[in-house]
Amino acid sequence: MGRKAKPLQEQVALLQKRGMIIAEPEKARQILLEIGWYRMSFYWFPFETRYPDRMNPTHQFKPGTRFEDALLLYAFDFNLRHALLKPLERIETAFRTYLIYHVSSRYPDRPEWFADPKVVSAAHARNFDRSIYSVLRRTQPEIELHHRRFPRDRYAPAWKTLEFMTFGALWTLYLSLNSDSLRLDVARHFGVHNPEVFNNYMDIVRDLRNYCAHGNILYSFKPGRILRGPVNGGKCEPPRNLRGALMVVDHFLGIVSERLRKELADETSRLIEQFSKSRGTARLLSGIFKT
User: Fold this and answer.
1) Mean pLDDT by 10 residues, the chain (291 residues)
2) Bridge-partner residues for 21, per DSSP?
3) Which of 187, 259, 286 is nearest to 227 (CA)?
4) Which residues contact 115 (CB under 8 A, 6 or more apart)?
């Protein structure tokens, strides 16, 4: 649409001028009003002649491209994002729970170990109050209630405090642990025996969770690298695309919930089949999920 906003009728006309087949212009206008030109452009981009070149696009569509092709891809993305949220939250909860349990068990007399320089890095301990805890006291009633009941405590114990920390803050805390063996124990609990591989896998889970939670474009998700490890049986590095990322999720679900693992695998297969109704989407999704 360029740098100047256009009425919906002109938006549809522009797509047609660029070679897109639009059988129902009124329906297309309604969809553009509901979803928006910019967001929909991510889903018709794979059907442009210069795809995947984003630097020098011509915005001309491949012969036979239909508006429904982009809409099917959008629907696939939307449904898969929502299908992923529950299992990704389950992985986060499992990581949170085991971190609290394992480190608290190692230091039973240090319930505030998350801000103790004998357990975590001095920098993390020094900055914890300002960067994390002050926000928790302001936004989490349960934390403030703890301090009303126990006014002498500087912090609520780990099993309360960590429950309200974001996934990102929790991961930073894990990385700040002074003990290599503690971090390795956590990794091993989740079936990974190499700390570097575990860090890589968890980065992918966190990125994927953020994509889903914030409605980002999922079909083109590309992790920087997925290290060789238990994912893919250690045979080779998984593909650097959405399929590879889902293989990482599948690994963790195999540890924390076989039921959710099967549910996600079944739902992913169903969505691929459901939204591969056109030649264009079928070709694109098979390119991502080919075995």
Assistant:
1) 81 97 96 96 94 86 96 97 97 98 97 98 97 96 97 97 96 98 97 96 96 95 93 86 96 97 97 92 91 59
2) 66
3) 187
4) 124, 125, 128, 129, 133, 154, 155
